[in-house]
Amino acid sequence: MLGARGYPTALEWIARRAEAFVIPLAALIVGMALFSLFIALVGKSPAQLYETMWRGGFGSWFSIQNSLSRAAPLLLAALCVALPARLGLVVIGGEGAIVLGGVAAAATGVATSGTPAFFVVLAMGVAGMAAGGIWIGAVGALRHYRAVNETISSLLMAYIAIALMNHLVEGPLRDPASLNKPSTEPLAQAYRIGNIAGMDVHWGLVVGVIACILSWLLIEKTRWGFAARIAGGNVRAAQVQGLAVGPLIVGFTALAGGFAGLAGMLEVAAVQGSANASLAAGYGYTGILVAFLARHNPLAIIPVAFLLGGIDASGGLIQRRMDLPDATVLVLQGMLFVVILFSETFYGRFKAFNPDLWQRPDLLKGIA
Amino acid sequence: MDSTEIGLWGVPLAMLGGAIRVSTPFIFVSLGEAITERSGRINLGLEGTLVFGAMTAYAVAVMTGSPWLGLLAAAAAGLCFGLFHGWICKFRGVNDIAIGIALMLFGSGLAFFFGKPFIQPSAPDLPAIPFGGWSDVPQVQAALNVNVLFLIGAALAVFLWWAFRNTRAGLILRVVGDSSDAARAMGLNPNTVRLIATGIGGALAGIGGAYLSLYYPGSWTEGISSGQGLMAVALVIFARWNPLGCFAAALLFGGAGALGPALQSVGVTQGYYLFYAAPYILTLVIMIATSSPSRSLAGAPGELSITK
């Protein structure tokens, strides 16, 4: 079948997908190469570094499970960036929603203890999602109804959320038995979320993967997702079409924040057992990178989160084996991020990926 | 001696002193960002530049024994970050806000990477001038011990306010910021002007960082900047891109930041962490109060992406 432009639609589809796959992959490789250069400049062996990274992140069943555990919150944190991105919003304060979701879940877990485990876990999940959803939903509402820049407001609100958590955990919600590390009361073992059968990875991974699939369905297969993509392209056009842009923005940002809040709930229910300062572990910030690397596609988030979870997981081994600071992974992430963003400029420039250019090479002159 | 001797008067006094001490990084970052934003581009990466500047200044001051060399090194490092941001943003399809976030992470990562060995040693401080010498109340003396960088920042604010209006460079900056097309019609290259403006903005943010590690709080730790660089970006919007407004707003933020410690010094410890959040809440409230969905902000450069 031929498309409107006179070449097979299937071929066009393949070309677009290939572009969306090859450019980020090439950017990843260039980023890694630049990082090799950096490591060589500080006098260490890049080969040894990547070998250690492979061993620590993906080399054995043990390290793969470790990477998967770290991927679980990253999946949800990345959705917190990817969903608003569909509406053209750059929300980077997911960390705040994670932290508050964790605190709300911990408080709910303690308050409902004594009831059946199923109910407690459900209540914690709802509380976590609600807290995160309100937090990021407010960012969306401020953006639409008051024109407050969402990037800055979300990051400011992340700082406020962390201060709020510190206040609650040190004050009203503090368990007097927690001495050096102020925490909320620990959850009873019966209410903790356990591991997937046969693995050392908690069920949060499954929750995260399901959330990604549902988000993909929402964006690609429902009319809300379609409306969001129109509003993301051009708000004015969406309003002319009669779309309720305000509720759409608030709804999408609230859902995004809800996923981040769920990540906080999982950290409490499956990993920490209580809410404390460890909730602000930086997953919100790594999630930004995951979302951008996946080009805000919820399905692509799944492999990318695993990749970055692995890089995160190998940090400890790199530190011990190679005597490098623990910030090494941060430098790598920063470098990858810059290169990935830079690679945006190459979309549509390569003849191989652009059916228009297959027949009209003269078009290249204008842009390349 | 503690501040309870002068009773509750210690609170406003400590806030005044705190405003002078805490505001300096805000002054430099916001003046730098004002220059960048006037050219029509926003650099959110100044948070990372601030942290990297703090580390560079501290490291160089430890190694050379001179805080001024540290300051210079921080400015040079900030210049590099700014120029990089300015260069990369000229490419088609590259989003200046996203690049800023990336450089924020990258700058902090690099600072933590190279800063590890400098957490222990102590560096020489930048000098301060004791304007409070006339008083025998130690709180007054402490509050009026003003660092030279604060004075330089104040002078710079006045100079920029004058230069934006009255110099050729100021005019070029404003034209480029308001309309790329008009600038091209005048034979100016918007990318070059923005590159220079972002570079200068980065250098000033680096100086702000140097103040953090070399004067107040006066040591290098990984938590040295808790969003000051970012708040300064919001502050520029609040100040309507006016350098004198930036200076006043920086003092206000410094005072808000000093609220928690000031109350703690007179024995109010309830809700310490909530007072700690005061500058962020203040920033957010100001942004909400000054933004409007129906009109663009008065004084906003026409090419600026966040107010369009």
Describe the structure.
Chain A is mainly alpha-helical and 368 residues long. Helix content of chain A is 71%, strand content 0%. Chain A has helices spanning 9-41, 46-57, 61-86, 94-111, 117-146, 150-170, 204-221, 223-233, 235-240, 245-272, 283-293, 298-313, 315-322, 328-343, 355-359, 364-367. Chain A is globular. The mean pLDDT of chain A is 91. With 308 residues, chain B is an all-alpha fold. Chain B is built from 13 helices and two strands, in the order ααααβαβαααααααα. Chain B has helices at residues 10-38, 46-64, 67-88, 96-115, 138-143, 148-166, 168-178, 180-185, 190-214, 228-238, 243-265, 272-276, 278-290; strands at 128-130, 145-147. Chain B has a two-stranded antiparallel sheet. Chain B is globular and about 60 Å long. The chains are: A mainly alpha (368), B mainly alpha (308).
Q: How large, in whole angstroms, is the Cα Rg of chain B?
A: 19 Å
H and E string of chain A: HHHHHHHHHHHHHHHH
Number of strands of chain B: 2
Helix share, percent of chain A: over 70%
Question: What is the CA–CA distance across the termini of chain B?
Answer: 54 Å
Oligomeric nature of the chains: heterodimer
Order of helices and strands of chain B: HHHHEHEHHHHHHHH
Q: Which structural category fits the helices and strands of chain A?
A: mainly alpha
Low-confidence stretches of chain B: none
Based on secondary structure, the structural category of chain B is mainly alpha
Q: Of all protein chain pairs, which has the greatest interface, and how many residues does each chain bring to it?
A: A-B, 46 and 46 residues
Number of strands of chain A: 0
Put simply, the count of helices of chain B is 13
Keywords (chain B): Cell membrane, Membrane, Transmembrane, Transmembrane helix
Transmembrane segments (chain B): 6-32, 44-62, 68-88, 97-119, 139-164, 193-214, 246-266, 272-290
Protein name (chain B): ABC transporter permease
InterPro entries (chain B): ABC_transp_permease
